[in-house]
Amino acid sequence: MKHLNVYIIALIAVCVSASCRKDLPEINDPANTISGNFSEVFDSYWNGMNNNYVFWDIDTTDWDRVYKQYKPLFAKLNLNDSTDVRKGYTYFKEMTAGLVDSHYDLTFKDAWLADSFSINPAYQRKVASPDYHDPISIFHFYNDVPRGYLDAGAVRGFTNVGTTAQYVAVSGTINQDILYFFFSGFNLKTLYNTDTANGVKTVEQYFFDKLKNTANIKGVIIDVRGNGGGDLADLNFLLGRMIDKQLDFGYTRSKQGNGRLDYSPWAPAFVTPQAGARNITAPIVMLADAWSVSMAEMTTMAVKSLPNGHFVGERTWGANGPLTSNIYYNGGQFSTDYINLVYTSSLMLKYRDGKIYEGVGFPPDVEVKYDAASLETGRDKQLEAAIGLIR
User: How many Å apart are CA 56 and CA 328, to the nearest integer?
Assistant: First the structure.
């Protein structure tokens, strides 16, 4: 999903000498292709996926079979016929339906497809699943949680970034000794370091002050339900304030060359303490659900790696692979002269237990399912379970 951008920085040791683009042979850049017909459109896309996609060793899609099946079908299409263009769109949707990468999103430059949705296999699978539910309304977090669960003096705010992005945050105490923090997207460090005041920055400052100055903290609840992800810099910025030593939570690897299975070695993924951090030994509980994506999942994994870390809620979305521009790695997102963007993970993430949760989601240790009827009345059983675990 295009709004799930995750920017890789040096917080995770993934750019080792074996994986940096400058030390590797150049890939055949699909963006440099010129397609005069649908057969060439297919070839540039297929080759781009063959070289850039990082999940081939765990993906069940037979990419060679895709070539044999769809190459002849595309060869029959006419780029200058709107009906054929829409048929090609259908073929792209069929080819990608089983891809395990849950960030995966495909958009096109063709004007005849301007009214078509992007192709997002994980979203289509989510909607079709028997346990599907809509995201919890942002107004539940903004209105119901402060009114029903937080002490007087709780703060809330929102910030608009450009014309398309809005970030919402809420923080307060529960019975004066449990600290609660909800935020709708990972842009915390950027919004906090702005020169001007904004609603999210005000909430962050409240949370950080309470984290530092509350003498008898009984627990911390970090609520990322419905959180679509964002900036990886927030991992250190947020969790680094609660630890006093490096927190190892998994491993990452990238593509190393043009070969489909040409991977770099696994490199450790970790969080580092920040200056002035307070080591929190009380329970830290992540609240996450089926709409917690990308950085929301990685943060949940990191907290769960703590001896005092817990995860309450539902299995997460399943898009754990970090993303960045493919100028840094021989893999990840790319474009062609026909495709606007193949939005796909740059790295594969393996949790500390040795398992890869891409496409399946990270499971809670205390499962509390979505309850629409309770939420309609303002009651939040998932939040109550987190409070109960701390108590």
Answer: 19
The CA-based angle 214-228-129, given to 5 degrees, is: 120
Q: Which residues of 271-299 are buried (b: 16+ CB within 10 A; e: fewer)?
A: bbbeeebbebebbbbbbbbbbbbbbbbbb
pLDDT computed for residue 327 by the predictor: 62
Looking at residue 305, its amino acid is S
Domains and CATH numbers, the chain: 138-322+349-390 (3.90.226.10)
- 366 strand-pairing partners: 312
The partner residues of 255 in beta bridges, in order of sequence, read 263
Token pair recorded at residue 117: 């949705």
Provide, for the chain, the percentages of residues in helix, strand and coil under a 3-state DSSP scheme, each rounded to the nearest 5. Answer: 30, 20, 50
User: For residue 128, what are the CA distances in angstroms to 100, 124, 319?
Assistant: 16, 6, 17
Per-block average pLDDT, block size 10, for the chain (391 residues)? 37 36 52 86 96 96 98 97 98 98 97 96 96 97 98 97 94 97 98 94 98 95 97 96 98 90 95 96 98 98 98 97 73 93 96 98 98 97 98 90
Contact 104, 343 (CB under 8 A): yes
> pTM of whole model > 0.85?
yes
In DSSP notation, 3-35 reads T------TTS----TTT-GGGSPPP--GGG---
